[in-house]
Design goal:
Distance between the termini: 26 Å
Order of helices and strands: EEEHEHHHEEHEEHEHEEHHEHHHHHHEE
Largest sheet: 4 strands, parallel
Number of strands: 14
Strand content: 5-15%
Shape: globular
Structural class: alpha/beta
Bound molecules: zinc ion
Helix content: 40-55%
């Protein structure tokens, strides 16, 4: 199916619920036609769970919605590859920090790929942006927002009167008592947070004006978002548990350094729960994507399930809900197959007002997404439309041309939903040629050569599998 590239509703307003101010706002990008989007990425110390994946799929729908409108999108997602958790994980696995985090970064890209998440424009790694973080801390230092203690640098929140404007946290309330529970006594105030942490023995560290050390987690996102998106950009997203302290601290650091607004709209996805309960390893209801796919190998159904609930509502994951999602995806797929058949059938006239109904569908679908990304409303528009079109196929009123119009409309909607099967991936000709060379090496029993080519392809992210039916290949990681 050809994807329709025409903007669905050029000029229509997108309403988004801004956590900053807690209200729906009419969204307009700072630069006309260009949406700059920062999406907090994974800390690569374990395999992400399905709750994390729900947030990444929500961000993907947001991205695809703007693309479908004809906007350009620059999306940045960081990879946190140095922090307490990654350092501890690498130490207990007996691996270097880069080897340890590379493994989980690869697992992450594999998971989001299976869920049809489009790649962001930039995936900056924290370890590759330490100089930018040091620069930002220096700017904060020059503007009087920091203090140093035993080789670490802290942000003094009392110098930033707007602190709390995102999360609504009342510092006067929380200040009392917290001090005692906090084990970082070197801070002047319990809520002050580390921008730079002094090196501890055996930990990775970088030279800085304050001595050897490493960046704090929050400064990573401020430095990398501003590097790729500018000091003032459109949208910053994450999960609800990022609101405080992570995003509150990002605002303090970024606005403290620049003296002007950092981000216009903050969006936060709610949690995913399982069978009505919080996911936890001890309860045995903690799932990764592999866990889910082992029981039902249908990534599109998982994606659909995520879309079936608005991102600001808690999503209750159950196996029944996943079955229902799989059935819904099947209905969309069968309708697409039927339309394709009618389009090839050559029926010339039928009476179904195809163009008019397709336009109505496109409007209703876009209106759902423009309403703070209300995906269930957009899905309802899909099923209303498919019901009409199916009835028209049944009673013979849909002609071949009308079926093509309907196919285009469904394909355009799927450009955002991403649940229809994707066209089989085509390998670059040069890699096909290497696979053919290996096959002929195997035929002449030159196994040294065939193993050499297999390893060469593996290094490029193509894994070969020899089956009785011939050689199959699959891609690993993000490459
Ligand atoms: Zn972040």
């Amino acid at each position: 199916m050809e994807e329709d590239r025409a903007p669905a509703r050029a000029g229509a307003v997108v309403k988004l619920y801004n956590t900053l101010g807690r209200r729906l706002v009419d969204f307009t990008p700072i630069e006309a036609g260009h949406v700059r989007l920062y999406t907090c990425g994974p800390t690569v110390y374990n395999v992400v769970h399905i709750g994390n994946l729900r947030t990444f799929v929500f961000e993907d729908v947001l991205r695809r919605h703007f693309l479908a409108r004809g906007d350009r999108v620059t999306q940045v997602m960081n990879l946190t590859d140095v922090d307490d958790k990654t350092i501890r994980g690498a130490q207990s696995a007996g691996l270097s920090l880069p080897d340890f985090t590379a493994k989980y970064a690869e697992a992450f890209f594999r998971d989001i790929g299976r869920l049809g998440v489009q790649p962001a424009e930039h995936y900056p790694k924290a370890t590759e942006h330490v100089p930018e973080m040091i620069d930002l801390i220096r700017r904060l230092e020059q503007r009087g927002h920091t203090y140093e203690s035993e080789g670490s640098v802290y942000f003094r929140i009392s110098t930033f009167p707007d602190y709390g404007k995102l999360s609504g946290i009342d510092l006067e309330q929380t200040r009392r008592g917290d001090r005692v529970a906090d084990d970082e006594y070197e801070k002047e105030d319990a809520k002050d947070f580390a921008l730079w942490k002094a090196a501890k023995p055996g930990e990775p560290s970088w030279p800085s004006p304050w001595g050897e050390g490493r960046p704090g987690w929050h400064i990573e996102c401020s430095a990398m978002s501003m590097k790729y998106l500018g000091e003032h950009f459109d949208i910053h997203t994450g999960a609800v548990d990022n609101v405080f302290p992570h995003h509150e601290n990002e605002i303090a650091q970024s606005e403290g350094a620049t003296g002007h607004p950092f981000v216009d709209v903050w969006l936060h996805a709610e949690h995913l729960i399982v069978d009505g309960e919080k996911m936890s390893k001890s309860k045995g209801n903690f799932y990764t994507l592999d866990d889910v796919l082992a029981r039902r190998d249908d990534p599109a159904a998982v994606r659909y399930l995520f879309l079936s609930v608005p991102y600001r509502k808690k999503l209750n994951f159950t196996w029944e809900a996943l079955s229902a999602a799989a059935a819904a995806v099947d209905r969309i797929r069968s309708a697409a197959v039927r339309l394709e058949e009618v389009s090839r059938g050559g029926r010339r006239s039928g009476g179904f007002p195809s163009a008019e109904r397709a336009a109505g569908f496109r409007t209703a679908f876009a209106a759902g997404l423009e309403d703070d990304l209300n995906t269930p409303e957009a899905l309802a528009a899909v099923f209303n439309y498919l019901r009409e079109v199916n009835a028209a196929v049944d009673d013979g009123s849909l002609d071949a041309e009308g079926a093509r119009v309907a196919m285009d409309a469904v394909a355009a909607a799927d450009g955002v939903l991403g649940v229809l099967p994707r066209a089989p991936e085509v390998l670059p000709a040069e890699i096909e040629e290497r696979i053919a060379a290996r096959n002929s090496a195997r035929k002449r029993r030159d196994f040294r050569e065939s193993d050499r080519i297999r390893d060469e392809l593996a290094a490029r992210g193509i894994v070969l599998e020899d089956t009785p039916g011939g050689t199959r290949w699959k891609k690993t990681g993000s490459v």
